[in-house]
Write a structure and sequence with these properties.
Elements (H helix, E strand, L loop, with lengths): L4 H20 L3 H18 L2 H17 L3 H18 L2 H17 L3 H18 L2 H17 L3 H17 L3 H17 L3 H105 L1
Helix pairs in contact: 1-2, 1-3, 2-3, 3-4, 3-5, 4-5, 5-6, 5-7, 6-7, 7-8, 7-9, 8-9, 9-10
Length: 293
Amino acid sequence: LRRSAPNQMETANTYVNIGNIYWRQKNYEEALKYYHLGLDIFQPLNHKKGIAEATINIGGVLFEQNHFSKALEYFETSLQLNKELGNKLGLAMAYFNLGRIELKLESYDTARRMFNQNQSLYRELENKRGLAESLEALGKLHLKKKEYVQAVEHCKAGFELADQIQALLEARDCSGCLYEALKRQKQYRSALFYLEKYTQLNDSLFNESNTKTIAQLEMQFDHEKETYALQQKQKEALLKAEIEKERMTRQSNLQVASVIVISILIIFLLTSLSNRRLKAKNQALSLAQKNTE
């Protein structure tokens, strides 16, 4: 049974949301499976926003699996679609992810350009969480280049912003960056301070993650129950449609057979009548000839 576009959209979004749950659980294969299921629905509908979201998520999972060239393709697809849509948040996320890949590939100038574009968009959107993440990424870039003063500058700005809005993940990552940069500068007391911050925040995130995981598993279980019920309804509808189709086919066949039988009977009767008439005519002719003789 063909589903309507709104129902297809709802299904696609559900698949993407399930993919997000598996991604958070680091079950990357299952995450990819559900993202692709969503993408396979979005693409025929030419739903650019859905395609952009699914592709950036697929790219993110591939990045975690160190498949950088494949991830790059998906991020570039998402970037292009978000440009067409004028979606600044989507653009910011795409630039950030492209920057992460370039950083991994040690293309520092390209990575800096991506992060700067990302940061500019986040400032325009007043997205403090995204901005903190972007500052930490630039800090890591300087850390890799052994530019420790700049690394501290960016990561400290990121940490203060994340701490202000209680963004635990970004605050933790900035703390780790600050620890590494300060340690390289031999500022051990300050480095120890941020190491302790990193540990505390990591513990908080672990507890928060466990709570979220339980809630997500409950949501997943509820969704699977709903999906099973929907599948059962679809199967019942298909079975009813097949039974009705078979009934209609039998009825149609019976009608055709009846027409054929009636046609044969009519032909038989007409032929018999014609033969009788011909026989009677022949008999009359024969009798007439005898009389003449």
